[in-house]
Amino acid sequence: MERLVIVSNRVPSLSLETSAGGLAVALKASLEESGGLWFGWSGTITERPGPQPRLDQCGAFSLATLDLSDEEFHGYYEEFSNRTLWPVFHGRLDLLRPDRKAYQIYRKVSFRFAHALSSLLQTGDAIWIQDYHLVPLGKELRSLGKMAPLGFFLHVPFPQAETFAALPYHRELLSDFCAYDLVGFQTSACAENFREAALRYLGGSLRNDGDIAFGTHSVRVGVFPVGIDTKAFREMAGSSDVQRRTQRLRACMHERDWICGVDRLDYTKGLAERFRAFEMVLDETPALQENISLIQIAAPSRESVLEYRDMRSQLESLSGRINGRLGTFDWAPIRYLNKAFNQAQLAALYRVSRIGLVTPLRDGMNLVAKEYVAAQDPEDPGVLILSRFAGAAQELTNALLVNPFDTSAVAAAIREALRMPLMDRQMRWRQMMNHLETNDVHAWRREFLKALKATSNRARDDSSP
Ligand code: F6P
Predict the structure, then answer these.
(1) Which residues are catalytically annotated?
(2) Is residue 61 a contact partner of residue 14, using CB atoms and an 8 Å limit?
(3) ipTM of this complex
(4) Whole-structure pTM value
(5) Which of 7, 9, 130, 186 to mutate to test the pocket of ligand 1 (most atoms within 8 A of CB)?
(6) In the chain, what's the furthest Cα-to-Cα distance?
(7) Which of 106, 156, 185, 362 has most ligand 1 atoms within 8 Å of CB, for mutation?
(8) Is the backbone of residue 215 left (phi > 0), alpha (psi -120 to 50) or beta?
(9) Block means of pLDDT (10 residues each) for the chain, length 465 residues?
(10) Which protein residue's CA is at the shortest distance from atom 7 of ligand 1?
């Protein structure tokens, strides 16, 4: 395997710095090692997108990007990826409104991407496709005669087989997944759900090693929990820049305790439930009023999608109601911020916050939970409260694990975290940190690529289901 080709809906910007998200940095590091290619959407919508990708050099590797038309952006990105697949993968069948036209456009984009990519491929390439936007791409490449090792990693959860089957196109999509040589998931539960769906709806056979076989083709199913760049994040959190920022924050905290939440504004993140749990803490423990604040960052996301706009209004009215009812002249219970912040700003926020409140209703992994831990001061670490339904809960078992739907349980965990003795906090933090140091994002990509390489000796044809 000589060159790595990464494919994702979004590609890093040309000015990607180490302060960008851990995942982009780690994938970039693997491309720098192999002098590879990153292929995906340019982020631009044009009237008539051309068939040829735009090529840019980004240090040791190349970026190849395609524009989308307005119709493609709407059908592929908004309607099918984010209004159909997203709710299904997160178990929100109440939000599912499948639309055949959007599905056809979704497939057409994979077809167009595969054609554009195939002209750039070289012998010896290994291709690694990221996430749910481009599931059919591997099969399209096979049908174009490309015999390179093909890996796919799903960053979001894979739901139970019956939930996935609510999607009218579940068989075709499962067959797309099974065209890869390796399909990776965040947790063993997701991998099991996928195996069950593939066996039940496609009729493959389960081999002893957990692969699923269809005639001469088999797909390897693996578990690769994605990590952060722990060392880099920890170093940044201890840097003089972040120290200056934490001093500034402490000066405006007036000795109050902060709880922080950092999320994309998304209905899967459990933000309304989180606000209610915080309100319950304040109502039931009046002594905490004026002594504690929740700083909630909810970076706007997918704003053209109706459910995201609805969520935004709901959160605005909920935070407004809580602040209006409980706030005082010089204290707002919830500071609710609708914007994105850079990694140094977030590291400072994590470091001054007594509690990191990460309570998604469902989440593939959740890297904020990991970054919160990595940013802590080892002498006086804060406490992570983490949803059992985030992939990260499988690894960060020394967090206070909660059911995010259970308001009283989340409120009780907040009180427990505020009371937690220093030794207990240090012990929990040390154990989580040990795990994050070994299982970082570099280990994640190494393990995935090793497993992909191990599939290289198998027969490759387009006989997938
Ligand atoms: O975590 C899932 C994911 O869809 C990523 O693939 C993506 O980078 C992120 O959420 C942000 O979403 P979007 O690309 O729709 O802004």
Answers:
(1) 155, 363
(2) no
(3) 0.96
(4) 0.96
(5) 9
(6) 71
(7) 156
(8) left
(9) 88 59 69 87 94 91 96 98 98 96 98 97 94 97 95 98 98 98 98 97 93 93 96 95 97 94 97 98 97 97 96 98 97 96 96 98 97 98 98 98 98 98 98 98 94 81 68
(10) 10
